[in-house]
Amino acid sequence: NVMVVARGHAPPLAELKALGVRRASLGGSLMQATYGFARASLKALAADGAFTYAAQAVPHGEMSKLMEKYR
C-alpha cells in the first residue's frame, strides 16, 4: 500500500505497479484538489462575476461510474 499524496509529484500508477505496488491510496489528495478548484473558481467569480466554473460539472451518475472502477 502506498499513499499517493505528493501533490502531483508521485510516479504514475504504471510505474508504481512495476515496482510491485498493489494498492495506491489517495488519502485526502482528491479533497485538497477539490479545494484548489473551489479557490480558483471563487477567485474568478469575484473577479468577473462569471459562472464559467460550472462548465466542468460532472453529472452524479457519471461520477458514480468512475468510482465503480476503484471499489
Main features:
3 helices, 49% helix, two-stranded parallel ribbon, 71 residues, mainly alpha
Notes on the protein architecture:
- The structure is a single chain.
- The chain contains 3 helices and 2 strands, in the order βαβαα.
- By secondary structure, it is mostly helical.
- The protein has a two-stranded parallel ribbon.
- Helix 1 (13-18) links the parallel strand 1 (2-3) and strand 2 (24-25).
- The protein is elongated and about 50 Å long.
- The model has no long low-confidence stretch (mean pLDDT 87).
What layout of secondary structure does this protein have?
Elements (H helix, E strand, L loop, with lengths): L1 E2 L9 H6 L5 E2 L3 H20 L11 H9 L3
Parallel strand pairs: 1-2
Strand order of the largest sheet: 1-2
Secondary-structure element pattern, one letter each: EHEHH
Structural class of the secondary elements? Answer: mainly alpha
Outline type: elongated
Largest sheet: 2 strands, parallel
In helices, the fraction of residues equals 40-55%
Residues in β-strands, percent: 5-15%
- Overall number of strands: 2
State Rg.
Answer: 16 Å
User: Helix segment count?
Assistant: 3
How far apart the termini lie comes to 15 Å
Low-confidence stretches: none
